[in-house]
Amino acid sequence: MKYFHHIFLAVSSFPTLLCLLFTSPLSAQTGVGVKAPAGAEVYFDGTRDMLDQKWMYWDGPRLAAKPPIKWKIVADPVDGGTVLNSNDPTAAGGKYGTADIVTKKAFRDFRLHIEFLVSEKGGNSGVYLQNRYEIQVLDGDTTSHGMAAVINETPSPYYAYNGIGKWNAYDIVFRAARFKDGQRSEKAMVSMCFNGQKVYTNQTINQVWGGPNSGIDGGNDGGKGITDIPGGLKLQAEGHNVLYRNIWIQELELEQPETDLFAVQIPLWPNGAPGFEKRRSEPEQAKDWWVKNVHNPSITPYLPPKNIATGAAVLICPGGGHRALVYNSEGRDAARYLNSIGVAAFVLKYRLFREEGSPYTEDHPRQDANRAMKLLRSRAVEWNLDPTRIGVMGFSAGGELAAWTALEEHPATQSVGDPVDGFSARPDFLVCIYPGPLAVPASLGSTPPPAFLLAANDDECCSEPVLQLAKLYRKAKVSVEVHLYAQGNHAFNMGNRTTLASIKTWSQRLTDWMKDNKWLEMK
Protein backbone atom coordinates (compact mmCIF):
# COMPACT_ATOMS: atom_id res chain seq x y z
CA MET A 1 0.00 0.00 0.00
CA LYS A 2 1.22 3.48 -0.82
CA TYR A 3 0.95 4.91 2.65
CA PHE A 4 3.66 2.67 4.06
CA HIS A 5 6.12 4.08 1.54
CA HIS A 6 5.09 7.59 2.52
CA ILE A 7 5.81 6.84 6.16
CA PHE A 8 9.38 5.91 5.43
CA LEU A 9 9.95 9.04 3.36
CA ALA A 10 8.30 11.53 5.67
CA VAL A 11 9.70 10.61 9.06
CA SER A 12 12.95 12.29 9.97
CA SER A 13 15.59 10.37 11.87
CA PHE A 14 15.66 10.26 15.62
CA PRO A 15 18.66 9.75 17.86
CA THR A 16 20.88 6.77 17.35
CA LEU A 17 20.87 6.83 21.13
CA LEU A 18 17.62 4.87 20.99
CA CYS A 19 19.38 1.55 21.52
CA LEU A 20 20.75 2.93 24.75
CA LEU A 21 17.30 4.10 25.76
CA PHE A 22 15.89 0.60 25.69
CA THR A 23 18.81 -1.47 26.95
CA SER A 24 20.86 0.72 29.25
CA PRO A 25 20.90 0.61 33.06
CA LEU A 26 19.62 4.19 32.79
CA SER A 27 16.13 2.74 32.59
CA ALA A 28 16.56 1.46 36.15
CA GLN A 29 14.64 2.86 39.08
CA THR A 30 15.01 6.43 40.31
CA GLY A 31 14.57 7.89 43.77
CA VAL A 32 15.95 7.48 47.26
CA GLY A 33 17.98 4.33 47.80
CA VAL A 34 18.79 3.47 44.17
CA LYS A 35 22.14 1.76 43.95
CA ALA A 36 24.82 2.32 41.33
CA PRO A 37 24.30 0.12 38.25
CA ALA A 38 27.04 -1.66 36.36
CA GLY A 39 29.25 0.89 34.62
CA ALA A 40 28.71 3.61 37.22
CA GLU A 41 31.33 4.82 39.69
CA VAL A 42 30.48 5.61 43.31
CA TYR A 43 31.77 9.01 44.43
CA PHE A 44 30.64 8.92 48.04
CA ASP A 45 29.92 5.81 50.07
CA GLY A 46 29.84 7.40 53.54
CA THR A 47 33.56 7.07 54.24
CA ARG A 48 36.27 9.61 54.87
CA ASP A 49 38.62 7.63 52.67
CA MET A 50 36.43 8.06 49.57
CA LEU A 51 35.89 11.76 50.32
CA ASP A 52 39.63 12.40 50.42
CA GLN A 53 40.34 10.12 47.47
CA LYS A 54 37.82 11.55 45.00
CA TRP A 55 37.10 15.13 46.10
CA MET A 56 38.96 18.38 46.68
CA TYR A 57 38.17 22.00 47.45
CA TRP A 58 37.29 23.94 44.33
CA ASP A 59 40.11 26.37 43.64
CA GLY A 60 37.83 29.26 42.70
CA PRO A 61 38.55 32.98 43.17
CA ARG A 62 36.87 33.00 46.59
CA LEU A 63 38.48 29.86 48.04
CA ALA A 64 39.34 30.35 51.71
CA ALA A 65 39.33 26.81 53.08
CA LYS A 66 42.52 24.76 53.24
CA PRO A 67 42.87 21.01 52.84
CA PRO A 68 42.12 18.52 54.13
CA ILE A 69 38.40 18.92 53.46
CA LYS A 70 36.61 20.09 56.62
CA TRP A 71 33.19 18.71 55.64
CA LYS A 72 32.37 16.21 58.41
CA ILE A 73 31.38 12.57 58.21
CA VAL A 74 28.36 12.29 60.52
CA ALA A 75 25.72 9.74 61.49
CA ASP A 76 22.77 9.30 59.16
CA PRO A 77 19.84 10.58 61.26
CA VAL A 78 17.30 8.43 59.37
CA ASP A 79 18.75 5.12 58.22
CA GLY A 80 21.96 4.66 60.19
CA GLY A 81 25.43 4.53 58.71
CA THR A 82 27.45 7.65 57.90
CA VAL A 83 26.87 10.59 55.56
CA LEU A 84 28.53 13.87 54.56
CA ASN A 85 27.67 17.23 56.17
CA SER A 86 28.24 20.27 53.93
CA ASN A 87 28.51 22.70 56.87
CA ASP A 88 32.16 23.71 56.44
CA PRO A 89 32.95 26.42 59.01
CA THR A 90 34.72 28.50 56.37
CA ALA A 91 31.42 29.05 54.53
CA ALA A 92 29.50 30.29 57.59
CA GLY A 93 27.11 33.08 56.68
CA GLY A 94 26.43 31.77 53.18
CA LYS A 95 29.85 32.46 51.67
CA TYR A 96 29.50 30.15 48.71
CA GLY A 97 32.70 29.49 46.82
CA THR A 98 34.87 29.63 49.94
CA ALA A 99 34.65 25.90 50.79
CA ASP A 100 32.84 24.16 47.93
CA ILE A 101 34.08 20.69 47.05
CA VAL A 102 34.37 19.20 43.58
CA THR A 103 35.24 15.79 42.20
CA LYS A 104 38.82 15.43 41.06
CA LYS A 105 37.55 13.92 37.86
CA ALA A 106 35.89 16.12 35.24
CA PHE A 107 32.94 15.06 33.06
CA ARG A 108 31.09 15.87 29.87
CA ASP A 109 27.96 13.72 29.51
CA PHE A 110 26.79 11.67 32.47
CA ARG A 111 24.03 10.19 34.61
CA LEU A 112 24.13 11.36 38.23
CA HIS A 113 22.39 10.03 41.31
CA ILE A 114 22.73 12.03 44.53
CA GLU A 115 20.77 12.04 47.77
CA PHE A 116 20.47 14.92 50.24
CA LEU A 117 18.75 15.75 53.52
CA VAL A 118 18.02 19.29 54.70
CA SER A 119 18.28 19.38 58.49
CA GLU A 120 16.62 22.68 59.27
CA LYS A 121 14.31 25.30 57.84
CA GLY A 122 15.95 27.33 55.09
CA GLY A 123 18.79 24.83 54.66
CA ASN A 124 20.85 25.69 51.59
CA SER A 125 23.42 24.00 49.37
CA GLY A 126 23.67 23.26 45.65
CA VAL A 127 24.60 20.57 43.14
CA TYR A 128 26.67 21.91 40.25
CA LEU A 129 26.82 19.96 37.02
CA GLN A 130 30.21 20.31 35.32
CA ASN A 131 31.03 22.81 38.09
CA ARG A 132 28.87 25.26 36.11
CA TYR A 133 25.15 24.68 36.21
CA GLU A 134 23.45 24.66 39.60
CA ILE A 135 20.55 22.46 40.60
CA GLN A 136 19.48 24.29 43.74
CA VAL A 137 19.04 22.77 47.18
CA LEU A 138 17.11 25.35 49.20
CA ASP A 139 14.31 24.59 51.65
CA GLY A 140 11.31 26.92 51.66
CA ASP A 141 11.92 28.58 48.26
CA THR A 142 9.51 27.75 45.44
CA THR A 143 10.86 30.25 42.91
CA SER A 144 13.36 29.81 40.08
CA HIS A 145 16.02 30.18 42.77
CA GLY A 146 14.42 27.51 44.94
CA MET A 147 14.47 23.81 45.63
CA ALA A 148 15.46 21.65 42.63
CA ALA A 149 15.32 24.56 40.18
CA VAL A 150 17.82 24.69 37.36
CA ILE A 151 18.77 27.96 38.91
CA ASN A 152 17.22 31.01 37.23
CA GLU A 153 16.17 28.83 34.30
CA THR A 154 13.13 26.89 35.60
CA PRO A 155 10.53 27.21 38.36
CA SER A 156 11.12 25.07 41.43
CA PRO A 157 9.35 21.67 41.28
CA TYR A 158 8.79 22.04 45.01
CA TYR A 159 5.84 19.66 44.92
CA ALA A 160 8.27 16.73 44.64
CA TYR A 161 10.29 17.70 47.74
CA ASN A 162 10.03 15.26 50.66
CA GLY A 163 10.66 17.99 53.24
CA ILE A 164 12.98 18.72 56.15
CA GLY A 165 14.58 15.77 57.90
CA LYS A 166 13.87 13.36 55.03
CA TRP A 167 16.12 12.03 52.31
CA ASN A 168 15.62 13.33 48.78
CA ALA A 169 17.14 12.18 45.50
CA TYR A 170 18.11 13.84 42.24
CA ASP A 171 18.49 11.52 39.26
CA ILE A 172 19.98 13.52 36.42
CA VAL A 173 21.07 12.90 32.85
CA PHE A 174 23.28 15.73 31.63
CA ARG A 175 24.61 16.49 28.16
CA ALA A 176 27.38 19.08 27.91
CA ALA A 177 27.25 22.01 25.52
CA ARG A 178 28.57 21.33 22.02
CA PHE A 179 30.92 23.52 20.04
CA LYS A 180 31.73 24.10 16.40
CA ASP A 181 34.67 26.18 15.24
CA GLY A 182 35.17 27.37 18.81
CA GLN A 183 31.59 28.62 19.18
CA ARG A 184 28.81 27.04 21.21
CA SER A 185 26.48 25.33 18.73
CA GLU A 186 24.26 23.46 21.21
CA LYS A 187 23.43 24.43 24.78
CA ALA A 188 23.85 22.11 27.74
CA MET A 189 20.80 19.95 28.37
CA VAL A 190 19.40 18.10 31.37
CA SER A 191 16.57 15.73 32.24
CA MET A 192 15.85 15.09 35.89
CA CYS A 193 13.73 13.05 38.26
CA PHE A 194 13.21 14.44 41.76
CA ASN A 195 12.28 11.71 44.23
CA GLY A 196 11.23 9.54 41.32
CA GLN A 197 9.06 12.20 39.67
CA LYS A 198 10.06 13.45 36.23
CA VAL A 199 10.48 17.21 36.61
CA TYR A 200 12.63 18.17 33.59
CA THR A 201 12.82 16.72 30.12
CA ASN A 202 15.56 17.96 27.77
CA GLN A 203 15.75 21.28 29.60
CA THR A 204 18.38 23.50 27.97
CA ILE A 205 20.63 25.63 30.18
CA ASN A 206 21.59 29.05 28.91
CA GLN A 207 24.42 30.18 31.15
CA VAL A 208 26.30 30.00 34.45
CA TRP A 209 24.58 32.07 37.13
CA GLY A 210 26.12 33.65 40.22
CA GLY A 211 29.30 35.19 38.86
CA PRO A 212 32.89 33.95 39.04
CA ASN A 213 32.46 32.55 42.56
CA SER A 214 29.77 30.19 41.31
CA GLY A 215 31.72 27.95 38.93
CA ILE A 216 33.63 27.52 35.70
CA ASP A 217 32.82 30.30 33.18
CA GLY A 218 30.83 32.25 35.79
CA GLY A 219 33.02 35.27 35.10
CA ASN A 220 33.02 34.96 31.29
CA ASP A 221 30.68 37.49 29.70
CA GLY A 222 28.41 37.48 32.71
CA GLY A 223 28.19 33.68 32.69
CA LYS A 224 27.24 33.47 29.01
CA GLY A 225 30.76 32.77 27.78
CA ILE A 226 30.55 28.99 28.04
CA THR A 227 33.75 27.15 27.12
CA ASP A 228 34.39 23.59 25.98
CA ILE A 229 36.13 22.53 29.18
CA PRO A 230 34.83 19.53 31.12
CA GLY A 231 34.09 20.03 34.79
CA GLY A 232 33.54 17.98 37.92
CA LEU A 233 30.50 17.54 40.11
CA LYS A 234 30.56 20.31 42.70
CA LEU A 235 28.70 20.52 46.01
CA GLN A 236 28.20 23.91 47.60
CA ALA A 237 28.96 24.87 51.20
CA GLU A 238 26.65 27.63 52.46
CA GLY A 239 27.07 27.22 56.23
CA HIS A 240 24.02 24.95 56.57
CA ASN A 241 23.58 21.37 57.74
CA VAL A 242 22.70 19.79 54.43
CA LEU A 243 23.70 16.14 54.33
CA TYR A 244 24.71 14.05 51.29
CA ARG A 245 24.98 10.33 50.62
CA ASN A 246 24.83 7.70 47.86
CA ILE A 247 26.52 9.72 45.10
CA TRP A 248 27.33 7.91 41.88
CA ILE A 249 28.03 8.89 38.29
CA GLN A 250 27.81 6.95 35.05
CA GLU A 251 29.70 8.54 32.16
CA LEU A 252 27.87 8.65 28.82
CA GLU A 253 28.44 9.66 25.23
CA LEU A 254 25.26 11.37 24.06
CA GLU A 255 25.80 12.13 20.40
CA GLN A 256 22.29 13.47 19.91
CA PRO A 257 20.58 16.22 21.95
CA GLU A 258 18.51 13.78 23.97
CA THR A 259 18.73 13.26 27.74
CA ASP A 260 15.36 11.69 28.56
CA LEU A 261 16.69 8.25 29.40
CA PHE A 262 14.55 7.38 32.41
CA ALA A 263 11.76 5.54 30.60
CA VAL A 264 10.97 2.12 32.05
CA GLN A 265 9.63 -0.55 29.72
CA ILE A 266 6.96 -2.82 31.23
CA PRO A 267 6.19 -6.15 29.47
CA LEU A 268 2.50 -6.77 28.86
CA TRP A 269 2.83 -10.37 30.07
CA PRO A 270 5.29 -11.35 32.81
CA ASN A 271 6.42 -14.46 30.93
CA GLY A 272 6.11 -13.15 27.38
CA ALA A 273 3.29 -13.04 24.85
CA PRO A 274 1.08 -16.17 24.90
CA GLY A 275 2.36 -18.76 22.47
CA PHE A 276 5.62 -16.85 21.94
CA GLU A 277 7.11 -17.00 25.43
CA LYS A 278 10.39 -18.43 24.12
CA ARG A 279 10.98 -15.29 22.00
CA ARG A 280 10.58 -12.74 24.80
CA SER A 281 14.35 -12.45 25.35
CA GLU A 282 15.14 -11.64 21.73
CA PRO A 283 16.51 -8.08 21.61
CA GLU A 284 14.65 -5.37 19.79
CA GLN A 285 16.36 -3.60 16.89
CA ALA A 286 16.50 0.19 16.76
CA LYS A 287 18.19 2.57 14.36
CA ASP A 288 17.49 6.10 13.17
CA TRP A 289 13.70 6.48 13.37
CA TRP A 290 12.52 2.88 13.74
CA VAL A 291 12.15 0.11 16.25
CA LYS A 292 11.67 -3.45 14.99
CA ASN A 293 11.84 -7.07 16.10
CA VAL A 294 9.32 -6.65 18.91
CA HIS A 295 8.69 -10.07 20.45
CA ASN A 296 8.05 -9.02 24.05
CA PRO A 297 5.33 -6.35 23.67
CA SER A 298 5.40 -3.64 26.31
CA ILE A 299 4.27 -0.24 27.47
CA THR A 300 6.51 2.63 28.55
CA PRO A 301 4.86 4.98 31.07
CA TYR A 302 5.25 8.74 30.81
CA LEU A 303 3.59 10.29 33.85
CA PRO A 304 2.81 14.00 34.24
CA PRO A 305 3.97 16.00 37.28
CA LYS A 306 1.65 15.27 40.17
CA ASN A 307 0.73 18.93 40.58
CA ILE A 308 -0.96 18.99 37.14
CA ALA A 309 -2.02 15.34 36.80
CA THR A 310 -5.70 15.07 35.83
CA GLY A 311 -6.11 11.32 36.20
CA ALA A 312 -6.75 10.92 32.47
CA ALA A 313 -4.53 8.54 30.50
CA VAL A 314 -3.86 7.61 26.89
CA LEU A 315 -2.38 4.46 25.33
CA ILE A 316 -0.31 5.60 22.33
CA CYS A 317 0.15 3.35 19.27
CA PRO A 318 2.99 4.63 17.03
CA GLY A 319 2.72 4.11 13.28
CA GLY A 320 5.17 2.45 10.92
CA GLY A 321 3.12 0.36 8.51
CA HIS A 322 3.13 -2.68 10.82
CA ARG A 323 6.73 -3.13 9.61
CA ALA A 324 8.35 -0.87 12.21
CA LEU A 325 7.44 1.53 15.01
CA VAL A 326 8.03 5.27 14.65
CA TYR A 327 8.76 5.37 18.34
CA ASN A 328 10.11 8.85 19.03
CA SER A 329 8.05 11.17 16.86
CA GLU A 330 4.78 9.21 17.14
CA GLY A 331 5.32 7.78 20.61
CA ARG A 332 7.60 9.67 22.95
CA ASP A 333 6.80 13.13 21.52
CA ALA A 334 3.07 12.48 21.77
CA ALA A 335 3.56 11.32 25.37
CA ARG A 336 5.39 14.51 26.27
CA TYR A 337 2.61 16.61 24.79
CA LEU A 338 0.01 14.70 26.80
CA ASN A 339 2.08 15.06 29.96
CA SER A 340 2.17 18.83 29.43
CA ILE A 341 -1.64 18.95 29.72
CA GLY A 342 -1.73 16.66 32.74
CA VAL A 343 -2.44 13.36 30.96
CA ALA A 344 -0.55 10.17 31.70
CA ALA A 345 0.74 8.49 28.55
CA PHE A 346 1.79 4.93 27.84
CA VAL A 347 3.62 4.18 24.59
CA LEU A 348 2.83 0.71 23.23
CA LYS A 349 5.42 -1.43 21.50
CA TYR A 350 3.33 -3.97 19.65
CA ARG A 351 4.16 -6.92 17.43
CA LEU A 352 4.58 -6.23 13.71
CA PHE A 353 2.78 -8.58 11.36
CA ARG A 354 4.19 -7.06 8.14
CA GLU A 355 7.84 -7.07 9.22
CA GLU A 356 9.97 -9.36 7.06
CA GLY A 357 9.94 -12.87 8.46
CA SER A 358 7.28 -12.02 11.04
CA PRO A 359 5.41 -14.97 12.59
CA TYR A 360 2.49 -12.70 13.51
CA THR A 361 -0.92 -11.87 12.07
CA GLU A 362 -3.24 -8.91 12.53
CA ASP A 363 -4.61 -10.62 15.63
CA HIS A 364 -1.35 -10.28 17.56
CA PRO A 365 -1.13 -6.47 17.71
CA ARG A 366 -4.85 -6.52 18.56
CA GLN A 367 -4.01 -8.84 21.43
CA ASP A 368 -1.20 -6.50 22.53
CA ALA A 369 -3.34 -3.35 22.55
CA ASN A 370 -6.20 -5.06 24.36
CA ARG A 371 -3.82 -6.39 26.98
CA ALA A 372 -2.26 -2.94 27.38
CA MET A 373 -5.65 -1.34 28.06
CA LYS A 374 -6.39 -4.00 30.68
CA LEU A 375 -2.96 -3.52 32.25
CA LEU A 376 -3.53 0.24 32.60
CA ARG A 377 -6.82 -0.32 34.40
CA SER A 378 -5.32 -3.03 36.60
CA ARG A 379 -2.63 -0.58 37.80
CA ALA A 380 -4.77 2.56 37.85
CA VAL A 381 -4.29 3.11 41.58
CA GLU A 382 -0.51 2.79 41.30
CA TRP A 383 -0.35 5.33 38.47
CA ASN A 384 -3.12 7.61 39.84
CA LEU A 385 -5.36 7.01 36.83
CA ASP A 386 -9.11 7.38 36.59
CA PRO A 387 -10.17 4.03 35.04
CA THR A 388 -13.15 5.77 33.39
CA ARG A 389 -10.90 8.23 31.49
CA ILE A 390 -8.43 6.00 29.67
CA GLY A 391 -8.30 6.50 25.90
CA VAL A 392 -6.31 5.20 22.97
CA MET A 393 -4.42 7.23 20.36
CA GLY A 394 -2.77 6.06 17.16
CA PHE A 395 -0.89 7.40 14.16
CA SER A 396 -1.17 5.85 10.67
CA ALA A 397 -0.88 2.07 11.14
CA GLY A 398 -1.07 2.75 14.86
CA GLY A 399 -4.33 4.55 14.12
CA GLU A 400 -5.61 1.29 12.66
CA LEU A 401 -4.67 -0.51 15.85
CA ALA A 402 -6.27 2.21 17.98
CA ALA A 403 -9.49 1.90 15.97
CA TRP A 404 -9.51 -1.88 16.28
CA THR A 405 -9.11 -1.51 20.03
CA ALA A 406 -11.90 1.05 20.33
CA LEU A 407 -14.44 -0.18 17.78
CA GLU A 408 -14.34 -3.96 18.06
CA GLU A 409 -16.14 -5.85 20.80
CA HIS A 410 -13.90 -6.96 23.67
CA PRO A 411 -15.83 -8.85 26.32
CA ALA A 412 -14.02 -9.14 29.65
CA THR A 413 -12.38 -12.51 30.21
CA GLN A 414 -10.62 -14.12 33.13
CA SER A 415 -7.64 -16.38 32.52
CA VAL A 416 -6.70 -18.71 35.33
CA GLY A 417 -4.11 -17.05 37.53
CA ASP A 418 -4.13 -13.82 35.50
CA PRO A 419 -6.18 -11.11 37.23
CA VAL A 420 -5.27 -8.51 34.58
CA ASP A 421 -7.45 -10.31 32.05
CA GLY A 422 -10.56 -9.54 34.08
CA PHE A 423 -10.38 -5.81 33.33
CA SER A 424 -12.07 -4.08 30.42
CA ALA A 425 -10.09 -3.41 27.24
CA ARG A 426 -12.56 -0.82 25.93
CA PRO A 427 -11.09 2.69 25.66
CA ASP A 428 -13.16 5.60 26.93
CA PHE A 429 -12.21 7.73 23.92
CA LEU A 430 -10.47 7.31 20.57
CA VAL A 431 -7.90 9.58 18.87
CA CYS A 432 -6.93 8.67 15.28
CA ILE A 433 -4.27 10.76 13.54
CA TYR A 434 -4.10 10.02 9.78
CA PRO A 435 -5.21 6.39 10.36
CA GLY A 436 -4.66 3.77 7.68
CA PRO A 437 -7.53 2.19 5.72
CA LEU A 438 -7.73 -0.86 7.98
CA ALA A 439 -9.09 1.46 10.67
CA VAL A 440 -12.50 1.51 9.00
CA PRO A 441 -14.82 -1.32 10.10
CA ALA A 442 -17.83 -2.52 8.16
CA SER A 443 -19.94 -1.13 11.00
CA LEU A 444 -19.45 0.23 14.47
CA GLY A 445 -19.78 -1.95 17.54
CA SER A 446 -22.60 -1.46 20.01
CA THR A 447 -20.76 1.05 22.22
CA PRO A 448 -18.16 3.05 20.23
CA PRO A 449 -16.41 5.69 22.35
CA PRO A 450 -16.29 9.40 21.42
CA ALA A 451 -13.69 10.02 18.72
CA PHE A 452 -11.26 12.69 17.56
CA LEU A 453 -10.16 12.24 13.92
CA LEU A 454 -7.51 14.27 12.10
CA ALA A 455 -5.68 14.15 8.76
CA ALA A 456 -4.56 16.32 5.84
CA ASN A 457 -6.65 16.42 2.66
CA ASP A 458 -3.58 15.87 0.47
CA ASP A 459 -2.74 12.61 2.27
CA GLU A 460 -3.43 10.12 -0.54
CA CYS A 461 -4.02 7.15 1.72
CA CYS A 462 -5.14 8.35 5.07
CA SER A 463 -7.54 11.23 4.65
CA GLU A 464 -10.25 8.97 3.26
CA PRO A 465 -10.37 6.71 6.35
CA VAL A 466 -11.04 9.77 8.49
CA LEU A 467 -14.03 10.68 6.33
CA GLN A 468 -15.31 7.12 6.33
CA LEU A 469 -15.00 6.83 10.10
CA ALA A 470 -16.77 10.17 10.52
CA LYS A 471 -19.63 8.93 8.34
CA LEU A 472 -20.01 5.78 10.45
CA TYR A 473 -19.99 7.83 13.64
CA ARG A 474 -22.58 10.26 12.31
CA LYS A 475 -24.81 7.40 11.21
CA ALA A 476 -24.56 5.86 14.68
CA LYS A 477 -25.20 9.27 16.27
CA VAL A 478 -22.05 9.00 18.40
CA SER A 479 -19.94 12.03 19.32
CA VAL A 480 -17.12 12.70 16.84
CA GLU A 481 -14.86 15.64 16.05
CA VAL A 482 -13.14 15.80 12.65
CA HIS A 483 -10.28 18.00 11.42
CA LEU A 484 -9.27 17.80 7.76
CA TYR A 485 -6.45 20.21 6.92
CA ALA A 486 -5.88 21.45 3.38
CA GLN A 487 -2.17 20.60 3.46
CA GLY A 488 0.17 18.43 5.49
CA ASN A 489 0.37 15.14 3.61
CA HIS A 490 1.22 12.08 5.71
CA ALA A 491 3.35 11.52 8.83
CA PHE A 492 3.53 15.07 10.15
CA ASN A 493 3.62 13.46 13.61
CA MET A 494 3.10 16.06 16.38
CA GLY A 495 3.76 18.92 13.93
CA ASN A 496 7.19 19.76 15.35
CA ARG A 497 9.01 19.88 12.00
CA THR A 498 6.43 21.34 9.64
CA THR A 499 6.42 24.90 8.31
CA LEU A 500 2.61 24.92 8.08
CA ALA A 501 1.07 26.93 10.90
CA SER A 502 -2.10 24.82 10.97
CA ILE A 503 -0.20 21.54 11.25
CA LYS A 504 2.30 22.91 13.75
CA THR A 505 -0.56 23.67 16.16
CA TRP A 506 -2.86 20.71 15.48
CA SER A 507 -2.31 19.34 18.98
CA GLN A 508 -4.11 22.37 20.39
CA ARG A 509 -7.27 21.14 18.68
CA LEU A 510 -6.88 17.88 20.57
CA THR A 511 -6.38 19.75 23.83
CA ASP A 512 -9.56 21.75 23.18
CA TRP A 513 -11.52 18.57 22.44
CA MET A 514 -10.29 16.89 25.60
CA LYS A 515 -11.20 19.95 27.66
CA ASP A 516 -14.66 20.23 26.10
CA ASN A 517 -15.35 16.58 26.87
CA LYS A 518 -14.09 17.03 30.45
CA TRP A 519 -11.29 14.50 30.08
CA LEU A 520 -8.90 17.07 31.60
CA GLU A 521 -10.84 17.88 34.76
CA MET A 522 -8.72 17.18 37.84
CA LYS A 523 -10.43 14.78 40.23
Structural commentary:
The protein is α+β, with helices and mostly antiparallel strands and 523 residues long. The model is unreliable at 1-27 (pLDDT under 50). Helix 5 (363-378) crosses helix 7 (397-407). Helix content is 18%, strand content 25%. Helix 4 links the parallel strand 20 and strand 21 (344-349). It is built from 10 helices and 25 strands.
What is the typical, i.e. mean, pLDDT? 92
Largest sheet: 8 strands, antiparallel
By helix and strand content, what is the structural category?
alpha+beta
Round the Cα radius of gyration to an integer and report it.
25 Å
Count of DSSP-assigned helices: 10
Helix content range of the residues, please?
10-25%
The percentage of residues in β strands lies in: 25-35%
Number of strands: 25
From the N-terminal CA to the C-terminal CA, the straight-line distance is: 44 Å
Query: Which residues sit in consecutive blocks of at least 5 with pLDDT less than 50?
Result: 1-27
Shape: elongated
Oligomer: single chain
Keywords:
523 residues; 10 helices; elongated; disordered N terminus; eight-stranded antiparallel beta sheet; single chain
